[in-house]
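User: Here's a structure from my thesis project, written as C-alpha cells. My advisor, Dr. K., wants to see whether a designed sequence matches the one we expressed. Can you design one independently, without my sequence as a hint?
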C-alpha cells in the first residue's frame, strides 16, 4: 500500500512538471510571435517613413497642391503638370557640394511663393539673382549637411558634423568667400562689412595674425571661421555647441569661454557682436575655384598678403595703438592692471638705443602682454616703426643732460653699487609697482631677460634718476624728501641688474669705456 502511494505521488509530480513545461513553452511561443509581429511592424513603419511618409515627400505633396492653386497662367499650369515627386539634389564637384536642400525647399526661386509658409517660401532678398542654386548650391552659404533629407540632420547641430548650419542672421559671413567688404556693403552684406570695419577699429591685428601678419599674443585668425566645433572647447558655451555660438559668446566674455584668456572684453552692443562674429566666420581661407572670386576679392587677398607700404606712424597706429595709443604718454590699463609704457615719450626716446627698441619689438616682453613681433611684420616695417618712435622732437623743457643721454646709450658702461643697499631701497620704494623680484606688477618687469639684455646701466640710472615724463615713473634724484643721492641710485641699478642674473647688453665700444661710474 505504501509503495502504491509513492508511485501515485511521483506520477502526479511528473504530470505537474510536464504541464508547467508546456505552459512555459506556450508563453515563449506567444512571446516570440508577438516579438516577430512587433519587429515586422517596426520594419514596416521604418520603411514607410523612409520611403513614403518622409518629410521631403510630404513637403513636395504640399508644394504640388500650392502649384495647383497658383496655376493661373499657361506657365503656371505647366509648372504644376511637370512637377513630380522625387529626391532632388545639386551636385557641384568643384565646390565639393552635394545638396539635397531643394528636395524640401522647392519654391526658393519662384517669385509667386511670397505668401506661403516655409519651406515652400521664395528665398529672401536678391541673392539668388546672382547666385544660381545650380551653380552654387546651398551649403556654400548656409553650411550644414547638404546630403541630409531630414531638417535636424541637415542642420547638423550636435551631429558631429564639422560645419553645422549657420543661423539665418549669420549667413552674410559667406559673402566673404567670394567678395570683399566694399563690394557688398550696400548689396546684402552690410553686417559683414560692418564686422570688417570693427575688426580694424578694435585693433584685432595687434594680438592676432591674419595671413601671417600681426601680433602673436593670440592665435592666428586666418581660418578661424572654418574650424570644426571639435577644435575649440565648448565646455562653457551656453547656447548651441557650434563654432558660431562659441565666437559670439567669446566676444561677449572671453574669460568665461577661455579661462585665463588675455583678451580684454570688447564690451560691444548686440549688433556689433553679431557683425564681428559674422566677419570672424568669414575668415576661412578656403581654396575656391578662381571663377567664383570677384575682382574685389582678388584685390583684397593680394593686399592681405602684400599690403601697401605704410609709414611708421601708420604702422604704429595699426599694430601698436590698441595698447599704446599714440605712445606719447603712459596710461593705466584696467584689464591688465598695469601701466602701459610711453613708447614715444620724451624721456624714453632720449635714452633708448635702436638696439633696445629692436629687441623690445622683435622679441617682446615674455610673460607680459607685449608679444614678439618677429615674423608678424616685415623687417623694413619694424625699422620704420623704430625710426618713427625715435624720431620724436623733444621740447627744451624736458631735455635731459647730454652727458646722461650719452651714458644711457653706452653699452660698455658698468655701474657699481651696494647691492644690499639697493635691495633695501627697492623693497621700500619700487616693489609695489615692479614686484618684489622685479617680476612686474603695475610697472614693467625688470627681471625680464629681454629687458635686461637690451637696457644699459646708463639707461637704468637715467630712468631712476630723472623719471619718465608723462608717465607714472617719478624722478628720484635730488635733495627733497623721498629722493636719493647718486650713490643710492647706483646701488639701485646694481640690484636691478642682479635680478637678471648678470645679463647685459653686448658692448660695442672699446673696453676702456667699461667700469666707468655715473657721476
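Assistant: Designed independently from the structure alone:
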Amino acid at each position: 500500500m505504501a509503495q502504491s502511494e509513492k508511485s501515485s505521488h511521483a506520477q502526479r509530480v511528473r504530470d505537474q512538471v510536464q504541464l508547467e513545461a508546456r505552459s512555459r513553452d506556450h508563453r515563449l511561443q506567444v512571446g516570440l510571435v508577438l516579438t516577430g509581429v512587433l519587429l515586422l511592424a517596426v520594419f514596416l513603419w521604418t520603411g514607410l517613413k523612409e520611403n513614403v511618409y518622409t518629410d521631403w515627400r510630404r513637403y513636395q505633396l504640399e508644394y504640388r497642391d500650392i502649384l495647383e492653386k497658383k496655376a493661373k497662367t499657361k506657365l503656371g499650369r505647366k509648372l504644376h503638370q511637370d512637377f513630380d515627386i522625387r529626391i532632388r539634389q545639386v551636385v557641384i564637384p568643384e565646390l565639393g557640394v552635394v545638396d539635397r536642400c531643394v528636395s524640401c525647399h522647392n519654391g526658393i526661386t519662384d517669385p509667386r511663393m511670397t505668401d506661403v509658409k516655409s519651406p515652400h517660401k521664395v528665398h529672401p532678398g536678391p541673392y539668388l539673382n546672382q547666385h544660381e542654386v545650380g551653380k552654387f548650391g546651398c551649403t556654400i552659404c548656409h553650411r550644414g549637411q547638404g546630403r541630409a533629407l531630414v531638417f535636424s540632420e541637415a542642420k547638423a547641430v550636435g551631429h558631429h558634423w564639422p560645419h553645422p548650419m549657420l543661423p539665418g542672421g549669420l549667413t552674410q559671413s559667406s559673402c566673404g568667400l567670394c567678395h570683399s567688404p566694399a563690394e557688398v556693403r550696400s548689396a546684402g552684406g552690410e553686417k559683414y562689412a560692418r564686422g570688417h570695419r570693427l575688426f580694424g577699429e578694435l585693433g584685432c591685428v595687434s594680438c592676432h595674425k591674419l595671413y601671417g601678419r600681426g601680433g602673436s599674443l593670440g592665435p592666428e585668425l586666418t581660418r578661424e571661421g572654418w574650424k570644426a566645433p571639435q577644435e575649440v572647447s565648448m565646455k562653457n558655451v551656453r547656447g548651441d555647441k557650434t563654432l558660431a555660438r562659441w565666437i559670439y559668446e567669446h566676444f561677449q566674455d572671453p574669460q568665461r569661454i577661455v579661462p585665463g584668456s588675455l583678451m580684454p572684453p570688447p564690451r560691444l552692443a548686440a549688433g556689433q557682436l553679431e557683425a564681428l562674429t559674422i566677419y570672424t566666420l568669414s575668415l576661412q581661407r578656403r581654396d575656391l575655384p578662381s571663377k567664383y572670386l570677384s575682382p574685389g576679392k582678388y584685390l583684397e587677398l593680394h593686399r592681405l598678403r602684400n599690403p601697401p607700404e605704410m609709414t611708421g606712424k601708420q604702422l604704429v597706429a595699426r599694430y601698436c595703438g590698441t595698447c599704446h595709443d599714440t605712445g606719447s604718454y603712459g596710461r593705466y590699463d584696467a584689464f591688465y592692471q598695469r601701466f602701459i609704457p610711453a613708447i614715444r615719450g620724451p624721456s624714453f626716446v632720449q635714452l633708448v638705443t635702436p638696439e633696445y627698441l629692436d629687441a623690445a619689438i622683435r622679441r617682446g616682453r615674455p610673460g607680459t602682454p607685449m608679444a614678439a613681433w618677429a615674423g608678424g611684420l616685415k623687417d623694413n616695417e619694424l625699422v620704420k616703426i623704430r625710426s618713427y618712435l625715435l624720431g620724436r622732437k623733444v621740447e627744451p623743457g624736458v631735455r635731459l643732460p647730454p652727458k646722461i643721454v650719452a651714458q644711457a646709450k653706452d653699452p660698455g658702461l658698468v655701474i657699481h653699487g651696494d647691492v644690499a643697499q639697493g635691495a633695501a631701497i627697492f623693497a621700500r620704494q619700487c616693489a609695489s609697482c615692479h614686484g618684489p623680484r622685479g617680476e612686474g606688477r603695475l610697472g614693467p618687469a625688470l627681471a625680464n631677460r629681454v629687458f635686461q639684455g637690451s637696457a644699459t646701466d646708463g639707461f637704468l640710472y637715467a630712468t631712476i634718476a630723472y623719471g619718465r615724463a608723462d608717465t607714472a615713473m617719478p624722478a628720484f634724484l635730488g635733495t627733497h624728501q623721498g629722493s636719493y643721492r647718486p650713490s643710492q641710485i647706483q646701488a639701485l641699478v646694481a640690484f636691478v641688474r642682479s635680478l637678471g642674473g648678470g645679463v647685459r647688453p653686448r658692448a660695442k665700444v672699446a673696453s676702456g669705456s667699461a667700469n666707468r661710474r655715473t657721476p
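When you compare it with your expressed construct, this may help: The CA atoms of residues 169 and 274 lie 8 Å apart.
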